[in-house]
Amino acid sequence: MPDVIDNVFGPGGVLAREKPDYQPRKGQIELARMIHRMVELGCGSLLAEAPCGSGKSFAALVPLIVTARHRRENKKEGCPTASAFLTKTIALQEQIVHKDLPFLHRVLAGTYPFTYGLLKGKNNYVCRRKVSYPEEGSAKVAPEVMAWARSTRTGDRSEYRGELDSATWEHLSTPSEDCWNIGCPYHESCYATEARDCALSSDIVVANYHVAFGKDGSGLLRYQHIVCDEAHELAHVARDLLGWSASRFAVYRLARLMLELDGDQEPLDQNGDYVETIPTAAQVRKEADGFFFGLLPHIEEESKDTVRVRRAGMIRPDRLCASLKTVREACSHYLEKIDGGLMDDVDRLTLWRTRQLEEGCASVVSRLNAARDANKDGWVFWLEKKQGRDGKAQVSVEGRPFVVAPYLRQIMFGRHLTVCMSATLRSVDGFGFVRRELGTPESAAEMVVESPFNLASQGVLVIPPYVPIPPKFARGGSDAEIAARS
After folding, report:
1. Is residue 212 a contact partner of residue 120, using CB atoms and an 8 Å limit?
2. Can you give the three-state secondary structure of 293-339, one letter per residue?
3. Cα-to-chain-centroid distance, residue 373
């Protein structure tokens, strides 16, 4: 008797009836059946290498679709039922949401009802506050763009059909770290919040890794099943999520929060009983300039844009850290007075800004001290030269872990049914390298999907008549000189 996978993928199945040129692919059916079996069991991990054109997206989505209603109807209190389909980029997300899932919804939802949603970061949406109270520089936004921003239905950047450069978009959107959240007068009608709530109420949530993971991986707790597409990038994404950057502009943001809290007066002037001398915003900016511009000689000395912090004391952020520590302690003191009922009528925006300032100062101090000591096991620290928004050369302090397996093992494997698939997962030792990188359990299954193509007869090698010479070769020189520029 045909099972549900055969009914969808097999000869005469749903896909064959709906797609005139459809041909069953053995590898796709085997992958779909494996994932369906795991979903029905409700546990397990799978590493699947499936080449381009093998149909791995449908193979992963269909098992989640045909079991969605059962999971909903048999939901246990406190247990998630949603499935996450994670990709690396927004472009891949939108292909799944605007092409694959609408088709599957049309042909399957009558028998297997399901919902799906797209989860993107806040900076992909128009900020109602910014377009209602235009900030300095927003006059440069073209009238037709501003008219769209004020009348858009979803606020989604991809809804706009014209070109939106990053400079224009900065005047229309707000990154997560600058969002006023509950302190915003438009919090209840926020485009980003509405889109997020809608997506998270769906049976299948399509998201990129950074948004789905959240700051600490806690975002994954809302899902029962996780499918990771382009999983060969997963370890690199985890390093970015766990890593950090400390820059002059990050400290300037904290100084701006100080001014927003108290205008042009001494920061946190409400702390009249606080015994420490609190630096002003101008003093904090001056300390940031002194420290970060003082890192430029390290970069110039080695004639590179990145320089490894190899020894303790190579950078000395002590003065800047001392100032930020004092500001953080003042914020903590102020918040303790509020929690203790010693201050009344504190508006939500002031409260939010104070907490942001406290957390921001603590974060920068912790990061710079870690780079100063340069002895955190499993981490690497470096200085990186970039072009600043003001046109000046800027140096940031960067930190990344190079071992992320324990982190991924904790937040992904064991808690969820997890499928990791990509066209390129294996190396010389099969799945050994990716297992070590991702921290997959020993019990994780492995699968290699056959390519549906005969590359020997169907492949075409194309050599363009002109290929630009990379700059490092164009300048000429000996092999040693070229290698030195690489």
Report:
1. no
2. HCCHHHHHHHCCCEEECCCCCCCCCHHHHHHHHHHHHHHHHHHHHHH
3. 28
CA terminus-to-terminus distance, the chain:
60
What would the pLDDT profile of 419-429 be if each residue is shown by its tens digit? 999 999 999 99
Tell me if 49 sits within 8 A of 426, measured CB to CB: yes
CA dist 70 and 73 (Å) reads 5
pLDDT in tens, 99-146: 999 999 999 999 999 999 999 889 999 999 888 887 655 667 888 999
- Percentage of residues in the chain with pLDDT exceeding 70? 89
Q: Shortest CA distance to 107 belongs to which of 9, 190, 246, 195?
A: 9
Nearest CA to 85 out of 205, 231, 219, 186 is that of 205
- Over residues 326-375, the pLDDT tens digits come to 999 989 988 887 776 655 666 778 888 889 999 999 999 999 999 999 98
The token duo for 302 is: 């080695």
Work out the widest C-alpha separation in the chain, in whole angstroms: 81
CA dihedral 153, 155, 158, 163 (to 10 degrees): 100
Burial 254-274 (b: 16+ CB within 10 A, else e): bbebbeebbeeeebbebbeeb
